[in-house]
Design goal:
mainly beta, 176 residues, three-stranded antiparallel β-sheet, nine-stranded mixed β-sheet, 6% helix, L,D-transpeptidase catalytic domain-like, single chain, 1 helix
């Protein structure tokens, strides 16, 4: 029986701010924004909760028009203008990347702001999928004021780039 890899990333909430936390990688600790609903058991799509649990790091997406190819050992894909992510629980492509235009509810990955210039896709509710239990849980770039996310983890750009250099296939994040 193959042992599960030890999680390289752990996330802890800050006691005073339920929508902020620290993402720890060994001795490094990065300030991060969390979902507007804080950390907890994700109940439904759109609840704003950052889901507690152990989630594998799947891949990295990035905007090639805004930054050079990030250094990482993880699977890497450039975001294109027609890329989206389905967040419609009634669609068979729920919690999957889709091509735009897309008639059902979705997130546009090619955004006007910089939040999705770098995205780490987490394996939350993807294998298997449970319709309506939440989608598009990413680690992405934070707003300047570390405003809450819709359920993702958000870091400053230099911190996210530093994190990418340390991650390897098989790594996971533990949110407690």
């Amino acid at each position: 029986m193959k042992a599960k890899p030890v999680p390289k990333l752990t996330l802890r909430g800050l006691s005073r701010a339920r929508s902020q936390g620290k993402l720890c990688v060994g001795a490094l600790a990065f300030r991060c924004a969390l979902g507007r609903g804080g950390r907890g058991a994700k109940v439904r799509e759109g609840d704003g909760i950052t889901p507690v649990g152990r989630w594998p790091v799947r891949a990295v997406l990035y905007r090639p028009d805004r930054l050079r190819r990030p250094r990482t050992a993880l699977p890497l894909r450039a975001i294109r203008a027609h890329d989206g992510w389905c967040d419609d629980p009634t669609d068979g492509r729920y919690n999957r990347m889709v091509k735009l235009p897309f008639r059902r509810s979705h997130e546009r990955l090619w955004r006007g702001d910089h939040l999705y210039d770098i995205v780490i896709v987490l394996g939350y509710n993807d294998r298997p999928r449970s319709l309506g239990r939440g989608s598009a849980i990413f680690i992405h770039l934070a707003r300047r004021d570390f405003a809450p996310t819709a359920g993702c983890i958000a870091l400053r750009r230099p911190d996210l780039l530093r994190l990418l250099e340390r991650l390897e296939p098989g790594d996971s994040v533990v949110i407690s």
